[in-house]
Amino acid sequence: MKKAGILNRHLAGALAELGHGDGVLVCDAGMPIPEGPRVVDLAFRAGVPAFAEVLDGLLAELVVEGATAARELREANPEASSLLEGHFPGLDLVPHERLKQLSAGARLIVRTGEARPYANVLLRCGVFF
C-alpha cells in the first residue's frame, strides 16, 4: 500500500495517465457530469471531501499550467474564489455555461463532496521538465 500521496487507486491511476495539455475538472457535487471523460467520484456526503482538500491533494501530484473557473464564482462563493485566485494568479474566468461546455473536453473529472455553488475548476496539465 502507498504510504503517502493519493491513495484512491482510481484517482492515482487516472493521474498517471495524464499528459501535457490534458484537462482535469475538479468539481462540486452539483456540477453536471458530461458523457465521455473518465470520472473519479470522491463524494462521500455533503461537504466531504471538501473542494479545497481535493484541490490541494491534486496540486501536490500535478503540474498545472493554467486554470479556468466560472465568472459567477467571485460573487456566489468568495471563499472558493480566493482559494483559486491564490493558487492560480492568471485564473481564466468564463461564464458557468461555458465552463460546462469546456468540461466535456476534459480527460478526467474529479467530483468532490463540496456543496457550495461554483466550486469547480478546469485545470490544464503542464510538464515537470
Structural overview:
The chain has helices at 9-16, 51-61, 73-76, 78-87, 96-103, and strands spanning 23-27, 38-41, 64-70, 92-94, 108-111, 121-125. It has 129 residues and is an alpha/beta fold. It is globular and about 40 Å long.
Structure classification: alpha/beta
On the 0 to 100 scale, the average pLDDT is 95
Give the radius of gyration: 13 Å
Our count of helices gives: 5
Topology, pairings included?
Blueprint: H1 9-16, E1 23-27, E2 38-41, H2 51-61, E3 64-70, H3 73-76, H4 78-87, E4 92-94, H5 96-103, E5 108-111, E6 121-125
Parallel strand pairs: 1-5, 2-5, 3-4
Antiparallel strand pairs: 1-6, 3-6
Short description:
The protein is α/β, with parallel strands linked by helices and 129 residues long. It contains five helices and six strands.
Which tags fit this structure?
129 residues, alpha/beta, six-stranded mixed sheet, 6 strands, 22% strand
